[in-house]
Design a protein that fits this description.
Elements lengths: L21 E5 L27 H11 L3 E2 L8 E5 L5 E6 L4 E4 L2 E4 L1 E6 L5 E5 L3 E4 L8 E5 L2 E6 L8 E3 L2 E8 L2 E8 L2 E8 L2 H4 L2 H4 L1 E8 L1 E5 L5 E5 L5 E5 L3 E3 L6 H10 L21 E3 L1 E3 L6 E5 L2 H5 L7 E3 L2 E3 L5 E6 L7 E2 L6 E7 L8 E10 L7 E14 L5 E8 L8 H4 L5 E10 L9 E6 L1 H9 L4 E8 L9 E4 L3 E7 L10 E3 L3 E2 L8 E2 L4 E7 L8 E9 L6 E5 L11 E6 L9 E9 L14 E3 L10 E3 L21
Parallel strand pairs: 1-44, 39-46
Antiparallel strand pairs: 1-45, 2-3, 3-4, 4-36, 5-6, 7-8, 9-10, 10-11, 11-16, 12-13, 13-14, 14-15, 15-24, 15-25, 16-23, 17-18, 18-19, 20-21, 20-24, 22-23, 26-27, 26-29, 28-29, 28-35, 29-34, 30-33, 30-35, 30-36, 31-32, 31-34, 37-38, 37-40, 40-43, 41-42, 41-44, 44-46
Length: 648
């Protein structure tokens, strides 16, 4: 191993009996990106190239000088771009941003429209979803992977009023409206109880919805929520956190909402938009749920104190929300409602953070936010830059205040202020940024936090997800109060190691290719050793380092005794060779090794860094080579014998 080269094992370490293992090495540095995302100036694949491969995208990126999307890597919540420099840049979104429709990827569009069957459906989302068009049709039907969950109202529904992604059914009970909202991968359900007289309805004491599941069993969870579980696989197809109910005693929250919207900030709330969210209310309680043994109905039992207690401020709102579970998630915790989960922002598009001590915050409260994002795609890579990006939709003023981003423990639909306040929950502060967006004179804008080292740790340790936490640096300062979107994403530029050198790529000038053999052959002339067609998945230039091990009898055993310098770099797919030194002893079994590098020094304009090595878990089989002494008394005898796990 040359001086200054750091090798990192990213797989299973091979035993000493293994030689010529293709150790892959890739660069580990890069300047953090701070500008606009690559997608802004990228070349997207045309309709004629719906599955543009990585190789084709890299060629196009180098030709145009712009990032090009690798369409074959596109997903509901992910896009990847090949950059002109030979790297990849990915965005991992918290929520789906596109879905398959008519065999094509289309942007998410939750706006509702009438269907030919008379139902109401969003235009493009990640699950099948239909709302009732009125009458006795199911109130809602949600489908995914051939599994269906349907809920029906206990009676006839009026035709809905459509407003964007919301369908409102007026007076489904006297003084009670039903509002259904389409989301990217599910829906929200909200009962609006408009008066004390409406709250006295016997039907509301235990609201019974007809339940019909095709291919799923619906059951209650330990946290008070619901899940529809695939009858075959046993995994959740649809989930609902514990439903909540709240009144309108949260003060003039609508003033804040309206003001933010007038500034172009996409803030929380439904189409009506004037009601307080669950965590902005002065009265909040969970709703009990029950699924009887027959699984033919879902029973919602509102809290009587919030529904019709004294000092209630109507309307009173009763949810739940349903969605298709994913690796990503987000939640808010409230110090005032310290034991109440606020999973997925209770269906709102954004949530507050920091201390809200203003007139529109009743009760005054302190809040923190959490976001969980998948990172498994970066395992084994070198992270060149990484930013956590989230939109600041509202601030108490345009005076900048610091916000801290942390790595935290995982979240669930049961996460509360009390649970996250435990020692060790906030693991490490990653970044702190001072800003203020979303007020008059400082429009809503994305906030970016550098998380390169944290994502590199996740890549090194093969983590499936990372959870980020946002909190105000000063949780006593009302001017630090902000709201943030639930549509955050992780932007990562990364480089992958060269492809593992396979045994079929390795040969000796005298001794042939590495292959299984009954005995290691004896050779008299050393000649050269070759590594053929060494490649890199990012089309980076590559170089090779060879090595030989033997036991010289000095008591140190089988160790590396010949490690020449790294070869000069060549284009991906090139072949390499090196002459073996005469210092290799006679009558010794020799083990050969080779490493592949894509070191950045081979590219103009990029900083040289210590390359990082990765090993594969394969255990190659090929002959060792024993060097014979010169033929002075008799010719050498070529012999072979089985040597499991050795190479040549």
């Amino acid at each position: 191993m040359p001086v200054g080269v750091r090798l990192r094992a990213a797989g299973v370490i091979l035993s000493t009996a293994v030689a010529l293992s293709g150790l892959a090495v890739t660069n580990a540095v890069g300047a953090a990106r701070t500008g606009a995302p690559a997608a802004v100036t990228s070349e997207a694949p045309s309709a004629e190239q719906p599955t543009l491969t990585e190789a084709a995208a890299f060629v196009q990126a180098r030709r145009t000088g712009k990032p090009v999307e690798v369409a074959s890597l596109r997903g509901e919540s992910r896009e990847v771009y090949a950059t002109p420099e030979g790297n990849l840049e990915a965005r991992e979104h918290l929520r789906p941003v596109r879905a398959r429709a008519g065999g094509e990827w289309k942007p998410i569009d939750t706006d509702l429209a009438k269907t030919d069957s008379g139902m109401v459906a969003p235009k493009v989302i990640a699950v099948g979803l239909e709302f009732s068009g009125g009458g006795t049709a199911p109130m809602v039907r949600m489908t995914k992977a051939g599994r269906t969950l349907a809920l029906s109202w206990p009676g006839t529904l009026p035709a809905p009023r459509i407003d964007g992604d919301n369908a409102t059914y007026l007076d489904v009970l006297p003084g009670v409206d039903l509002r259904l909202g389409a989301q990217e991968d599910g829906f929200t359900q909200l009962l609006v109880v408009k008066s004390a007289e409406a709250a006295a309805s016997k039907e509301l004491a235990a609201l019974r919805l007809k339940l019909d599941g095709d291919g799923v069993d619906v059951r209650e969870t330990g946290g008070g929520g619901l899940e529809a579980v695939d009858k075959g696989a046993g995994s959740a197809v649809f989930e609902a956190p514990q439903p909540l109910m709240w009144d309108s005693s949260g003060g003039p929250a609508a003033e804040q909402t309206a003001a933010a919207r007038s500034l172009g900030a996409a803030t929380a709330g439904s189409a009506a938009g004037d009601e307080p969210g669950a965590a902005e209310s002065g009265k909040l309680a969970p709703v009990d749920v029950e699924v009887p043994a027959g699984q033919d109905e879902l029973v919602l039992k509102p809290d009587t104190e919030v529904l019709k207690g004294q000092d209630m401020v109507y309307p009173v709102y009763i949810d739940p929300q349903w969605y298709s579970p994913k690796a990503s998630a987000w939640t808010m915790v409230s110090k005032y409602w310290a034991s109440s989960p606020q999973w997925k922002f209770n269906g709102d598009s954004d949530a507050g953070m920091g201390y809200c001590g203003w007139s529109y915050c009743k009760p005054y409260d302190t809040k923190r936010l959490f976001y969980r994002i998948p990172v498994s795609k970066f395992a084994g890579t070198s992270v060149l830059s990484a930013e956590f990006v989230v939109r600041n939709t509202w601030s108490a003023s345009c005076g900048a205040r610091s916000v801290e981003l942390w790595r935290t423990k995982d979240i669930s639909s049961s996460t509360t202020w009390n649970s996250q306040n435990a020692a060790g929950y906030w693991i490490k502060q990653l970044s702190s940024q001072s800003f203020a967006y979303g007020y008059e004179g400082c429009a809503a804008k994305d906030a970016e936090f550098d998380v390169k080292s944290a994502v590199q740790e996740a890549a090194d340790k093969n983590w499936a997800t990372m959870t980020f936490g946002l909190q105000a640096a000063n949780e006593s300062d009302a001017y630090g109060w902000k709201r943030f979107s639930g549509d955050a994403y992780l932007r990562v530029k990364y480089n992958r190691p060269p492809s593992q050198i396979k045994l079929s790529q390795l040969t000796m000038e005298y001794g042939g290719a590495c292959k299984k053999s009954a005995d290691a052959p004896r050779i008299r002339t050393l000649g050269k050793i070759y590594a053929n067609n060494v490649s890199d998945p990012d089309a980076d230039n590559v170089a090779v380092q060879f090595q030989a091990k033997w036991d010289s009898g000095d008591g140190k055993g089988l160790i590396a005794r010949w490690t020449p310098a790294l070869t000069s770099s060549k284009k991906s797919g090139s072949s390499f060779s090196i002459a073996l030194p005469s210092s290799i002893p006679q009558n010794k079994q020799i083990q050969w090794y080779a490493r592949a590098y894509d070191g950045p020094s081979t590219r103009r304009g990029r900083t040289r860094a210590a390359p990082r090595a990765a090993t594969s878990s394969m255990t190659p089989q090929c002959p060792r080579h024993r060097r014979s002494p010169p033929a002075t008394t008799r010719p050498p005898t070529r012999r072979t014998r089985t040597t499991p796990g050795s190479t040549g």
